[in-house]
Amino acid sequence: MKLILKKPVESLGDAGDIVSVKAGYGRNYLIPQGLAYEASATNIRRLEEEQKRAEERSRRDYLEARRRAAQMVGMSLLFHARAGEDGKLFGSVTNADIADRANDSGTLDFELDKRIVVMDEPLKILGVFSVPVHLHAEVDAEIEVRVEREGS
Known about the structure:
Radius of gyration: 24 Å
Helix content: 25-40%
Shape: elongated
Order of helices and strands: EEHEHEEHEEE
Number of domains: 2
CATH class of the largest domain: Alpha Beta
Strand order of the largest sheet: 2-1-3
């Protein structure tokens, strides 16, 4: 029996794969559990169309991420913060602060989401930092973040 998997099934295949299984396994387990559906000619044609649309969507997303990354080239954000004598901040600069400042700068034609500003931990010292922004699985950009002492 030929089936198209809706979801990944361990030791059988990934979503969208066309697999051959014993009739009882397909009829009694895979189809009732919602893991697969019958691989009729109509369903195969529909699967191919869905895959083509997903490919086109993925390509558009990639090109859009590249366009956004090009806008961020050379972007530098300046933060003034209170700091102690040793250069440690009384507070921190977080990914949300960076996203807000980038959105307020007026140089981007899109909203930068704080979740794509990748930081292991907030910035807690004075200095110049390169902060990565993950726009797409294959596209990353960097923003230069300068943290200076307040009043300097």
